[in-house]
Design a protein that fits this description.
With about 300 residues, the chain is α/β, with parallel strands linked by helices. It has two domains: about 180 residues, FAD/NAD(P)-binding domain, CATH 3.50.50.60; about 120 residues, FAD/NAD(P)-binding domain (3-Layer(bba) Sandwich). The chain is about 20% helix and about 30% strand. The protein has six helices and 19 strands. Strands 1, 2, 5, 6, 7, 8 and 19 form a seven-stranded mixed beta sheet that branches. Helix 1 packs parallel to helix 2. The longest helix has 20 residues. The chain is elongated. About 40% of the residues are buried. The mean pLDDT is about 95. The structure holds NADP nicotinamide-adenine-dinucleotide phosphate. NADP nicotinamide-adenine-dinucleotide phosphate binds next to helix 4.
Amino acid sequence: MAEEKVVEDVIILGTGPAGLSAALYAARADLHPLIMTGTEIGGQAALTDRIENYPGFPEGVGGSELADLFQKNAERFGARLEYDTATEVDLSQQPFKVKTYSKDYFSKALILTTGARSNKLNVPGENEFRGRGVSYCATCDGWFFKEKKVAVVGGGDSALEEAIFLTRFATSVIIIHRRDALRAGAILQKRATDNPKIHFVWNTVVTEIKGVDGVDQLRLKNVKDGTESEMDVDGIFVFIGHTPNTEIFKGQIDLDEKGYIVVDNRLRTKIPGVFAAGEVCDPHYRQVVTSAGMGAAAAIEATRFLEND
Ligand code: NAP
């Protein structure tokens, strides 16, 4: 007998702060949202060691602890987590179809909160040594670099925050930045420059990552005078921005030139019933609090859309 086609009110793709906040609001509107977790439960926030700027936690809160609280809060009101990954969506007709590794799901409304992933340097050795000295997450891999020397690439908030975290383990953390001025905010800049374990290499890019069993050496190039040099390190952490996870939506909704979902000021994509929230549509703020707020707003919009259905 053919399986009965179940049509959900709302499916949310992604479990970062936007997805779980959308889930909380949709659950409290009695929509019994189904949340497709994807592979990175909790999103990028869950990989952050400590979050010190989420209101309500004056002493800060662990990233994974906050993600866990978000999830519990949503589940308490009836949100359902499906440990599966969307591989395709069909937004051409109602109900929308979400294809996963295990089956097809159908829903009257969708909230896209698939977030973004770390950019790569795209230099020789980067893929080869990934997980063997090349990392994109200090919280995940910092522990492996006890008493070692590591490089951090980037000059933004992520690079500095993660470099500071790495000083718990490493004896020396070298921040390699392509300019001579940091993009990061003032507080992190001060903390990093005051930290005796952190050193800066300015106007420099990494052109190759070399090693035998793991990373041993970086090839560097000074972008001002073109001189090349080598630096011995045990590991390299790369924090040079993000790319939105929007490949499966391409051609169906509008994306900007960098791939971020284009939404109006009510988080609506060009397809009625399809909303987006969080970093997948926000190249500007990318904060836990702004993503959570967008998630809540998208769920309110989805609720209104379904009421007028
Ligand atoms: P970001 O602000 O975009 O900074 C990326 C850094 O990488 C920049 O310094 C950039 O250099 C450099 N870069 C980019 N491409 C490069 C390449 N190919 N080679 C070498 N360097 C390259 O990214 P982010 O630090 O991940 O931060 C993203 C957002 O999250 C920001 O809005 C940030 O404020 C926020 N955030 C906030 C916190 C916090 O509040 N505690 C923590 C983490 C992130 P240029 O400066 O020359 O462009």
